[in-house]
UniProtKB/TrEMBL annotation:
Lineage: Bacteria, Pseudomonadati, Pseudomonadota, Gammaproteobacteria, Cellvibrionales
GO molecular function, one term: magnesium ion binding
Provenance organism: marine gamma proteobacterium HTCC2143
Functional summary from the UniProt entry: Forms oxaloacetate, a four-carbon dicarboxylic acid source for the tricarboxylic acid cycle.
Gene that this sequence comes from: ppc
SUPFAM superfamilies reported in the protein's UniProt record: Phosphoenolpyruvate/pyruvate domain
Residue ranges of the TM segments: none
Superkingdom, natural source: Bacteria
Cellular-component GO terms for this entry: cytosol
Co-factor requirement: Mg(2+)
UniProt-listed PROSITE patterns: PEPCASE_1 (PS00781), PEPCASE_2 (PS00393)
GO BP field: carbon fixation; oxaloacetate metabolic process; tricarboxylic acid cycle
Stated name of the protein: Phosphoenolpyruvate carboxylase
């Protein structure tokens, strides 16, 4: 890593580490600091010379009373290393933007727009594409954000202080003031319990999402659109219309009820009302500030007519806006409290936009363009992005919950076919019945239908959705959707509930079989004339990354996702329907994680046609959007990738590449399933060497760790599945099967072909790059320590030996194809991992010992051991970042 470029990062890490050491000495005692320093030195030595025994000896001698403070010390350092790295990313970005002669980096509008023009795209085509572009980021509350909100606020303060310390004009006194502030933040962090004591509710998760909007995205999105507007004006001569927002936000928080009994109709309604309250409150602050600015009387005739004969017409018109926003906020609060509010409120964005646009035009007409492009333009762009509902709320429910409703209703009404209930009808019979009911003007469900509790909950949810304005709702996602009847059943329930503007319905295809059958299912659906007319030429389909990878392994799932997108795109194009693909990605590689820009550009050519949706989950929300500058950067990456994929899609892969990829996928899935699904040793191994059982003790998210209360590994959700493997550094879901598949092809003389694919095919290059990153973060020696201390089953131990061999095989195969050692082309990440390892290693050793002790019965100090274990889990997650 070049010294000059990254010296400030090392300085920040050293500063934060030194202040943490001072805090340990002052807040606990000198002996704790000495123990931590001894352990850190031994960990660095172990990494250097490979001799782990001195470190293990010292760690094994730690009394129980020291386990928590020692684990906390290393966890805090890892969090501070993360802060320093994030701050350094912002610093480097700012440095690059100051360099006039340095070419704009890939992923920026300043680089993309000139390239598109040089490649023959007209300015008009580019402007049209940007204006019609719709990239939607969907924030989800998956339980991978392990850091408490109260600590995140302190960490954000630390970032601000580091920014102040970067200023070259600070006086010595001002520098000391900032260092004192920094010391106070670190002391406060040490004194704060980093472990949640209570599991968050779905409403808590939604409030966390709102806090992310308020703290960064409320400011970052309009600032990004202002930058985009300036780039468009510079390169095309056209501006971004104020009502256009090529990137927007949606949410699953409070709407994702699949496998989460805590998300009820009442919770969904509460979250929607809270979002309305938050949006009104934020906009009210904006309007108050705008009134302070517009204190003059010059205006055009249209504004004069609207405001009346008032000496400050802009303020007078905004007074009415302010009152209606106040009413809207009070209405939301009253409704949340079960009270009635009678005042006039805003229901639709257009009602708010009308007076603001009137003011904007008046300022332009009166020669005050500079004022129009100031705070008022920011508010107009915020309304375009967030509206009166802050984020559109998606609803997700499992397909059988809807068919259960139809089954129960038809049973009550005595409707059968060949003496069979609805659940036993053929797919053709279900479709015929559902279409007939959709065409029928009379209601199907009786007013006083005696529904079971589960069916009533589904009906109550649709009743809540029917009461919402269309702007409040995103997609209705059906998980485990297999047949057209799954979609038609939801559409019928929307109609029965009286949804005047029903949500678009997006089937979610997750498992390998579902992905392979997705195109056939959508083709059958679009063949139904009533449905094709109903959707108005727009269809959304969600591609699941988590469960497909858990089902088939990373490589096979990735190829299945690729082929499914191609087939779905072809089906929709043939039917004259525009397809929007919704990528259900997670933070980890095995759940679709990775650099967003590269991921979108590696999608099959022609599958991103101006619109795409992507989930942002858990700790990745904080990582990408926790700081305003990083948020702007990531918003730009998403937008440029969507624009480039739309206007300049990559060439289709060669047939020999496809055949090779299919061969790799076939071998990979066979090996993956041989071990995960069919090896009788696997469950014992998994449950012994990973903290899967202990993870349930962490109050991470509102959703249960398993889809069913009982069940084995197959019922475990994809997130804790990945999280557990990451904790012990084997990272098995990301590479199992891949190594064998690649090694076989290398042995058969196909290395040159694989290297050509790596060089010339974005999709394959991304897969290999992600494998390389995972292999670099994985650590066979650490995983072996978990096996050594926790496995007492001889059969499970033999499986461990096989997996270790498979890991080394994958490692060698990746290096053979890439032609270099792991991360040789990414020195920044190499440095990051090297810095972290001596701090993560003691946490691994602590975690293993705590798991071993807690699994023994009748531990007197169980509570103390559990706390130390939770801290170790949090620390390892912080050190490895994309954990679940």
């Amino acid at each position: 890593m070049p010294d000059q470029q990254h010296a400030p990062l090392r300085d920040n890490v050293r500063l934060l580490g030194g202040l943490l050491g001072d805090t340990l000495r002052d807040q606990v005692d000198e002996s704790l600091l000495n123990r931590v320093e001894e352990i850190r030195t031994l960990a660095k030595q172990a990494r250097s010379d490979g001799n782990w025994q001195p470190l293990l000896d010292v760690m094994s001698e730690l009394p129980d009373s020291d386990l928590v403070p020692v684990a906390r010390a290393f966890t805090h350092f890892l969090n501070y290393a993360n802060i320093a790295e994030q701050h350094h990313r912002v610093r480097r970005r700012r440095d690059n933007r100051r360099e006039i002669d340095v070419p704009s980096p890939l992923g920026t509008m300043a680089e993309l727009l000139p390239r598109l023009l040089n490649n023959g795209h007209s300015a008009e085509a580019i402007v049209t594409a940007i204006s019609q572009c719709r990239t939607e980021l969907v924030l989800t509350a998956h339980p991978t954000e392990i850091t408490r909100r109260t600590l995140l606020r302190k960490y954000n303060d630390i970032d601000v202080i580091l920014g102040q310390l970067d200023r070259p004009d600070l006086t010595p006194k001002e520098q000391q003031t900032q260092l004192k502030r920094l010391r106070r933040r670190i002391i406060a962090g040490w004194q704060t319990d980093e472990i949640r004591r209570n599991r968050p509710t779905p409403v808590d998760e939604a409030k966390w999402g709102f806090a992310t909007i308020e703290s960064t995205l409320w400011h970052a999105l309009p600032e990004f659109l202002r930058d985009l507007d300036e780039q468009m004006l510079q390169h095309t001569g056209k501006r971004l219309p104020l009502d256009k927002a090529p990137i927007r936000l949606s949410s699953w928080m409070g709407g994702d009820r699949d496998g989460n009994p805590n998300v009820t109709a009442r919770v969904t309604e509460e979250v929607l009302l809270l979002a309305r309250w938050e949006a009104a409150d934020l906009l009210l602050r904006d309007i108050n500030e705008l009134r302070e600015d517009l204190s003059f009387g010059t205006c055009n005739s249209a504004l004069r007519e609207a405001a009346g004969d008032h000496h400050e017409p802009y303020r007078e018109l905004l007074r009415k806006v302010r009152q209606t926003l106040t009413n809207t906020r009070e209405w939301a609060e009253a409704t949340l409290n079960g009270e009635i509010f009678e005042g006039h409120i805003y229901q639709h964005d257009e009602e708010l936009l009308q007076p603001l646009q009137l003011i904007y035009q008046s300022l332009l007409d009166c020669g005050m363009e500079a004022i129009a492009h100031g705070r008022l333009e920011t508010i107009l762009r915020r309304v375009a992005c967030f509206g009166l509902t802050l984020m559109k709320l998606d609803i997700r429910q499992e397909s059988t919950r809807h068919s259960d409703v139809i089954n129960e209703v038809t049973h009550y009404l005595g409707i059968q076919i060949n003496n069979k209930p609805y659940q036993d009808w053929s797919e053709t019979e279900k479709q015929t019945f559902l279409i007939n009911e959709l065409k029928n003007r009379r209601p199907l469900i009786p007013k006083h239908f005696p529904a079971s509790a589960e069916v009533q909950e589904v009906l109550d949810t649709f009743a809540v959705l029917a009461r919402q304005p269309a702007s409040a709702l995103g997609a209705y996602i059906i998980s485990m959707a297999t047949y057209p009847s799954d979609i038609l059943a939801v559409r019928l329930l929307q109609q029965e509930a009286g949804c005047l503007t029903p949500q678009r319905i997006a089937p979610l295809f997750e498992t390998l079989d579902d992905l392979e059958g997705a195109a056939d299912s959508i083709e059958q659906l679009l063949a139904i004339e009533w449905y094709r007319q109903d959707i108005g030429g727009q269809q959304e389909v969600m591609i699941g990354y988590s469960d497909s990878a858990k089902d088939a392994g990373f490589f096979a799932a990735s190829w299945a996702q690729y082929r499914a997108q191609e087939a779905l795109s072809s089906v929709c194009e043939n039917a004259g329907v525009h397809l929007t693909l919704f990528h259900g990605r997670g933070g980890s590689v095995s759940r679709g994680g990775g650099p967003a820009h590269e991921a979108l550009l590696s999608q099959p050519p022609g599958t991103i046609k101006g619109s795409v949706r992507v989930t942002e989950q858990g700790e990745m929300i904080q990582f990408k959007f926790g700081l305003k500058e990083l948020a702007i950067h990531n918003l730009e990456l998403y937008t440029t990738a969507t624009l480039e994929a739309t206007l300049s899609p990559i060439e289709k892969p060669k047939q020999e590449w496809r055949e090779m990829m299919q061969t790799l996928a076939d071998v990979s899935v066979k090996e993956y399933r041989r071990i995960v699904h069919h090896d009788p040793r696997f469950v014992d191994y998994f449950r012994c060497v990973t903290p899967e059982q202990e993870l349930s003790r962490l109050s991470l998210g509102s959703r249960p760790a398993k889809r069913r209360a009982s069940g084995g590994v197959e019922s475990l959700r994809a997130i804790p599945w990945v999280f557990a493997w990451t904790q012990m550094r084997l990272m098995l879901p990301a590479w199992l099967g891949t190594g064998k598949a690649l090694a076989e092809q290398i042995d058969q003389g196909q290395q040159n072909l694989l290297q050509v694919m790596l060089k010339d095919w974005n999709f394959f290059s991304m897969l290999v790059d992600m494998q390389e990153m995972v292999m670099a973060k994985a650590d066979a020696k650490v995983a072996g320590y978990y096996e050594q201390r926790l496995l007492d089953n001889v059969n499970a131990q033999s499986l461990g030996q096989e997996l270790q061999a498979g890991f080394h095989q994958a490692h060698q195969a990746i290096e053979s194809i890439s032609g270099h050692s792991l991360l040789a082309n990414n020195p920044m990440l190499q440095f990051s991992i090297a810095v972290r390892n001596p701090y993560i290693d003691p946490l691994h050793i602590t975690q293993v010992e705590l798991m071993r002790r807690l699994r023994l019965q009748d531990q007197d100090n169980q509570e103390q051991l559990e706390q130390a274990l939770m801290v170790s889990i949090a620390g390892i997650a912080a050190g490895l970042r994309n954990t679940g």
